[in-house]
Known about the structure:
Blueprint: H1 2-20, E1 26-27, E2 32-34, E3 39-49, H2 61-73, E4 89-98, E5 106-113, E6 124-131, E7 137-144, E8 146-147, E9 150-153, E10 158-161, E11 166-175, E12 188-193, H3 198-212, E13 217-219, E14 224-228, H4 237-245, E15 248-249, E16 256-260, E17 265-268, E18 273-279, E19 284-295, E20 306-317, E21 323-327, H5 330-339, H6 344-357, E22 360-361, E23 363-366
Parallel strand pairs: 16-23
Antiparallel strand pairs: 1-15, 2-12, 3-4, 3-6, 4-5, 5-11, 6-7, 7-11, 8-11, 9-10, 12-14, 13-14, 16-17, 18-21, 18-22, 19-20
Amino acid sequence: xxxxxxxxxxxxxxxxxxxxxxxxxxxxxxxxxxxxxxxxxxxxxxxxxxxxxxxxxxxxxxxxxxxxxxxxxxxxxxxxxxxxxxxxxxxxxxxxxxxxxxxxxxxxxxxxxxxxxxxxxxxxxxxxxxxxxxxxxxxxxxxxxxxxxxxxxxxxxxxxxxxxxxxxxxxxxxxxxxxxxxxxxxxxxxxxxxxxxxxxxxxxxxxxxxxxxxxxxxxxxxxxxxxxxxxxxxxxxxxxxxxxxxxxxxxxxxxxxxxxxxxxxxxxxxxxxxxxxxxxxxxxxxxxxxxxxxxxxxxxxxxxxxxxxxxxxxxxxxxxxxxxxxxxxxxxxxxxxxxxxxxxxxxxxxxxxxxxxxxxxxxxxxx
Length: 367
């Protein structure tokens, strides 16, 4: 009897969890962002020193000028024409600063060569000011570079792995100025969906209202949901956002087929459907071979050597039968396309033809 009650309780718990969390449910934090909670891009120009002869060449006028200006600021008078910069490289330094970063926080910075340096391996970035779009300095960056690539060269051959003209400095940036943003002073929050959809936006608003117990949320458009801050959360938004971002919904997205012609990649969305259609796809191969036939004149004759071009053209076409293709579900669609025996390159042509005929019920996007 006790075992029966235990199994019944376990079954009820499983049913409740399955109803609370649908199979395709995702957290709001994974499909949307809060307005104002964002990163800010910083950029600066600096110099990397200590390179083993892999720095900029003499033609890099901006590197020479930067070196001279730096020496002048340090009280060292030098002649620009006598500077050797093979151990120095001009670089652009970039970083992403969160809106909540405070003075003293550390950021990872990326260092990229802008001259003709061949490698940044072993280099050290000198102190560089990173500025925002307003022209103000928010971070200072300096430190030894970490390069993810390597290269070696000899007199007749060279080899390289990955890119060695881009490097990172983990924690190499120190925040000097905070971004003026009063997070807890907001009267309302705005959720921005990464992929706009009216059904998903309305679903988020209804889910928030049911959990918060009132008409606090409303969908403004396909990509934005506005949430009024309840009175007991004023000046204390962190608990509210922690609760909101972990709520689960089932996003509804438009049917789409994405094709990458550069790599032959084809991705079909969950709701892609194909009406019944007959498809025959055969590869056509045309081979053109050029050759020359040389005709030599006889000995002691007055003739001339004649070169006659010859062209051989061969055409081969596969003979494939018509196959019926129909997809009410994604699995049926995949099985039908696989039955044709088409390669990813063939699928691109087939999907385009199906869209032109009106049989493909999805948006075909080529990237």
